[in-house]
Q: What sequence folds into this?
């Protein structure tokens, strides 16, 4: 690997453009060498603003480019499968924004393809694992200090969502983070999902089942509940509480930076969106990925974080969640045996 | 009513003795005139320590005593039905510690007997309604400030329970408070209950299903979840969060009175038991009951708080909860139509 | 003493009327038997609303009344000396709202008169000692848990003061509470006072030096600073932090009862006035005083709280404070040797 | 300027080595090209671990090196004057860890030398200005939301200091941060300083006056008090409260990342040292300095933060503080008129 990692960013919409700015202005030891987008002008315009950066029109060509050391996928989900397989083919480490792919079968295909290659090249963008609060919570659990975790409570609230957001997307785009958090914190698979549909928010778009309350059971019988409410009008609030046999621990009671007293009231501000809440987590995720890629050659492992299996597992749980959303019943999660791969 | 209300306290175990001390040393306008207990010595010993107080051996005689203006029932649940009916018969206002009676049928019988009398004489000891935090939360909901409540999250944790506590008692003695809180805050009935049984606490007595997570649905489709965990070893923690269409509100993040910094850590103490957490609520409950009894004559209403119907409704929900504890399934709550009484 | 203590309340302005209501509706074992006010109608009107209560026109007659067991003084400060001496003369226990008297000499005279009598009859209304937060802070200090206290920081903020409030009253009426808190927490006398006069609040009445920052030094060299700011327009905020050799502890970060999330912000309400903040402290103060008076006969001590000496010491410190307000210099506190009395 | 800024780090003790690691692993668009230390081996060892980095034995030679674009001074204070003047001479932007120089006169000489050059090349390492909490507090003040600030309270507590730390160093090394914070937040100069010496911590080294309480008055008459306590044994705690005419605001109530409940208590961890508390502030400071240096050519301004004048002002205030430490009296700050330079 060169001293300065040359990254191709595929997809420069909101998320991808954010990563381009991040790599350019905040990340040590890396630069954006290539950008690509199906809106060609957009990519070219962006490339022009970054020293040493080119726009490449074809994503597969960008992946194959010999002057690209690693790939960051921020393209739409349906293109992921093909692009991930191309990365594997060219032996390029890839950071893939969620989802891994858009369904369980293709996710499993990607898992298998990487397994056959024998190198860990694919990292999935579950950035919460890099958030300082989640990281400390995980450490606390692993320390044994609060005993074995028995129950986890999550809340995930957005002030608003785009107009086209539907009830299944609440599962696949929002709840998916609680799926990964559960697997990360408890170190085991989720075996069943039930989605409860409370009386819907009158201020939500017609037909949107919001809020939803998801119930997970895990392999060893732990219980997780997760309220997802994406049209609160309030702020971006993410909270997780782990209740263990010797104590409990909570993160995400956002207290803001400044505590203010004003006539009759006190308090602080809450993060308006995931960008403020998890901005630092994204920075850490990308810096650590860049660092891991650079040392990966020796070990065959080019990732420092959740991989293809985690993307597949999340897809399997969300598929069960979408089914439960329809039936209201508890749905078993169907996954292959990890040791079979 | 005389200027100083003469109260008979029936049952002077832990709870009753606490009420005797409260009325004697903290409540204005009332005194304990009579005490009764099936352990006669215990009642006589207590009576001797209070000026103007007598022990009466027979509870029904104590109720009928012409020098008793009102009754406080802290006797074991199985005796409540007979004692409540005696209070109605003699027209004596009565504060009845939960449960109203030990089953749904007898609870309904008491509701009907009081309805026939046409006077509201029976108050049930759901003290949380008098807690300053719950009262302010209720006010906030009623103000419309956080919009229509859609979801409620509760946690109810005890450090320990007596040795004979079984899984059904977690529903009937602990969860019953969340049942009443739900009905109080949301002003509607609970229509179904499901008890989820996570992997049990290894430090709990063998066979005790602890923790339990209860799910309530209400008439208009609101969702409530309540974690009840009675062997945490930690402290007495009671928390309720109401998530509304315009905002959310939480009570019970016990922060203690003093914020202390010590080597490496900061924090405060948590209430060790319900006595510290709800001591003030009990004081308020009894003072307001005493005040209400004194003015009751004019209105036929001698209570300022939850009444017999609330006791019946709680019994009906808990009965469904116990059934769900056995089956794991969602169980519909069976209640008569209130307008039929 | 009779079973129900018969109290004469002298002065039924805002403070006195509040005490009358408190004794009547919240305190066990006592009743208001006599009320007095220089506005005779006001006293008579109030008396008529309370069973068994009379208005007595002459305060000294009220004190002497054989059907009065104890006296609560809520009269203007300039009348205190004469009324306190009358209480001593008739051997009546008296709860005296601050100040003890209006100057250091007469305060000392009262201290000496009580000392000669050999009975502790006078309690001074420093209610903060009965506040649960201050009581726990005192316990924490006394436990040794945070080591020897070296520095204390206080803030005392009022939203507004009456129009006639002048700069010296900020010392004598507001800062006096921090004087007593300091003596209570640190268990020693204050030896010097300096008042710092920052740039004044533009929203305060012209000529009012507000805020003020007071610096106290104590006998053993501890340092206390107290910001007093009585025209904040915000709320009633009282905070005390004790910094010890092994840790620190803070009270008064008013967090309210409910934590609310609303668009963009979270927080709670702050107590609007001392009545909400210290209402419970007043209740406790009066209940414990009533209880102490009843058992006082045996011991000659009819008080449970700060006494005449504490009133005198506060007067001496405030006198030095007023002098410093004029000069800006540090002023030594002049007090007699306690053992000389 | 080249695309990747080539920095010489002078002094690679704890602070300098930290900056070398930071630039290498966290900062975009810069690399450490040269390191220097009077312990030559130490510099050579470090250089060997960083691709493209050389050790240069003579600091002035390192500054003059044509392949060095900017300098970071982490050398001992007594060498700063000569090194800063060399930076000015070679037109090299320089980030100078505090102090600017070790006395007021030489600090002024540096200010004048830079002024004569007509380019802003010198930034001083007051990192708190880049801390997210201080930045938001500053914004809040500037927004007018809490009105004009009248009083500021600061606390600055360290768990421990090195053995050679003396009472004057508490002023010059610790309190200096509150000096800069005051000037930053209030946008005016400090005109007098008084150091109060409370009874000293028995656990501090013999002869160390710890804690100290500093009082500042500013040009327009605002009051600042700052408790500095460097042997608390507790943690690294930095708190600032600004009391304004319309409200107040506080930062630094360190709540940790995780809120934990354990038997009887709740709470979180506190940052053990300034590295954890201000790590992010250092990162932001250096990244923004690197970015500013790169665009500086066009404007003659190569800094984004406090400059030489701020270093001089801090020196002048600290000199007055050290004098007050000796006399106990209020000491006027002597500074030249800024417009005269």
A:
């Amino acid at each position: 690997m060169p001293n300065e990692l040359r990254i191709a960013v595929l997809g420069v919409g909101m998320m991808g453009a954010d990563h381009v700015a991040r790599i350019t202005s905040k990340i040590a030891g890396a630069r954006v060498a290539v950008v690509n987008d199906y809106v060609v002008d957009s990519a070219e315009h962006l490339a022009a603003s970054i020293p040493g950066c080119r726009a490449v029109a074809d994503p597969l060509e960008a992946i194959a480019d010999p002057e690209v050391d690693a790939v960051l996928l921020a393209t739409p989900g349906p293109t992921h499968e093909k692009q991930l397989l191309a990365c594997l083919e060219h032996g390029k480490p890839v950071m893939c924004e969620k989802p891994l792919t858009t369904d369980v079968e293709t996710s499993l295909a990607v898992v298998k393809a990487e397994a056959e290659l024998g190198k860990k090249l694919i990292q999935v963008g579950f950035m919460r694992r890099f958030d300082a609060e989640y990281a400390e919570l995980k450490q606390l659990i692993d320390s044994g200090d609060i005993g074995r975790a028995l129950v986890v409570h999550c809340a995930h609230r957005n002030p608003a969502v785009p107009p086209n957001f539907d009830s299944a997307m609440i599962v696949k785009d929002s709840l998916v983070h609680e799926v990964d958090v559960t697997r990360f914190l408890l170190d085991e698979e989720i075996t069943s999902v039930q989605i409860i549909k409370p009386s819907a928010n009158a201020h939500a778009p017609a037909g949107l089942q919001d809020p939803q309350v998801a119930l997970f059971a895990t392999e060893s019988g732990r219980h997780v509940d997760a309220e997802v409410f994406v049209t609160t009008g309030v702020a971006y609030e993410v909270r997780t509480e782990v209740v263990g046999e010797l104590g409990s621990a909570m993160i995400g009671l956002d207290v803001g930076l400044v505590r203010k007293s004003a006539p009759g009231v006190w308090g602080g501000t809450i993060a308006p969106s995931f960008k403020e809440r998890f901005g630092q987590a994204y920075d850490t995720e990308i810096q650590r990925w860049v660092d891991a890629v650079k040392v990966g050659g020796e070990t065959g492992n080019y990732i420092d974080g959740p991989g293809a299996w985690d993307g597949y597992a999340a897809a399997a749980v969300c598929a069960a969640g979408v089914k439960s959303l329809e039936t209201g019943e508890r749905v078993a999660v169907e996954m292959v045996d990890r040791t079979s791969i």
User: Anything to note?
Assistant: The first strand of chain A starts at residue 5 and ends at 10. The mean pLDDT of chain A is 96.
